[in-house]
């Protein structure tokens, strides 16, 4: 029996899992770390925190699994996309990594359009230049911290930094590299035209592999720290969204998924490189060899729910009614007390700006329609509904692009909420399915490790063997009708407030 180790270097924690070749979860472990916000709109992390967490969870899953480390056939890393790890020649981190949700680079995005033109850049990169992506972060460092920029030897993405620490090798793969917007998406490699235009040294960037390719092997020092066996193969892995899609079986035509994590992502498979001419959808290489995907992103999905729980928490009344429940279960119970539509309270989930369909770093969260009738329960439900409306924005763009499906596969932390699943089904007015596996990106990483080590013939073969639909949620017609009316108001609010968001940013 072969065993596979998958990892997810996330924004709030690093997770490791071990599965067997039948896809059964054998062991899992998670280790948390802080998010650093030096200024409003800035978001950073120390890459060493990721590495320390990785050591901890790898040791734990090996110990808890009861297997021998030499039975691990391969390792598949996944992780948060777009983050920038700047290393010197000795492999030392030059400064904290700028993360996907960091919004400081709006002027650098404008510079990119000045160089290539708006339409010209989308034709080159298949994507807009957005503040969360890696390329503008590199320009920001060059302009604001020139001494650090002069010391750069390599620039890595978060999961690729963990690969480096495990192996001493510099490498990346197509799905994560796509999110740097330095790629030729159709050719699945770095774009000389973009690098030349931005005057970024190609030598700063690691070689690009397919996601199931073996890219490195565990080195002696990392083996000593983690309990892994020296020489264990490490495949390319995937960015968290492509990894989550692999772990959810979105590896064939006609499939759509919705991931409700910190961010919310509507994701579709594509046999060919395709893009939205207005750049509203991201067009990236998939973790499936020779395939691509489109996705729309809500920056603060379950993150909006977490914000509410962190700052306000469940009401005292609901705590007293359900002393055996905690945190999000209590919030769900509050939201269940309110009928669909939250009595006219509408939430815009733009807590850290937005990506899809409005690429606007200045957008902010809004509760619209507050009246005396609204209590804490209404605010909780309106958050769940507002995130669902934002995800519907993304789904509608998929429809415009000609990508249709009779179901949406739902996964991520938000999918654990029975109420939220029903709200998504009602707002989308479509069938929602959940799966027998719930590990997301780390599971996708493990499956890619299985492909790279020969346990599975292909990514599609892996998905066919281990992933099955578990639960179906159908829309309630009456609820869907209510949400259609509210969604029309929801769509108009951003347009009405756009200029005010920008003015507020100047205050």
Written overview of the protein:
The relative contact order is 0.13. This protein has 2 domains: 279 residues, ATPase, nucleotide binding domain (Nucleotidyltransferase, domain 5), CATH 3.30.420.40; 162 residues, ATPase, nucleotide binding domain (Nucleotidyltransferase, domain 5, 2-Layer Sandwich), CATH 3.30.420.40. Helix 10 packs across helix 16, helix 11 runs antiparallel to helix 14 and helix 14 crosses helix 15. The model has no long low-confidence stretch (mean pLDDT 95). Strands 18-19-17-16-22-23-24 form a 7-stranded mixed β-sheet, sandwiched between helices. Strands 3-2-1-5-15 form a 5-stranded mixed β-sheet, with helices on both faces. Strands 4-7 form a two-stranded antiparallel sheet. It is globular, with a radius of gyration of 22 Å. The protein starts with a strand and ends with a helix. The protein is built from 18 helices and 24 strands. By secondary structure, it is of the alpha+beta class.
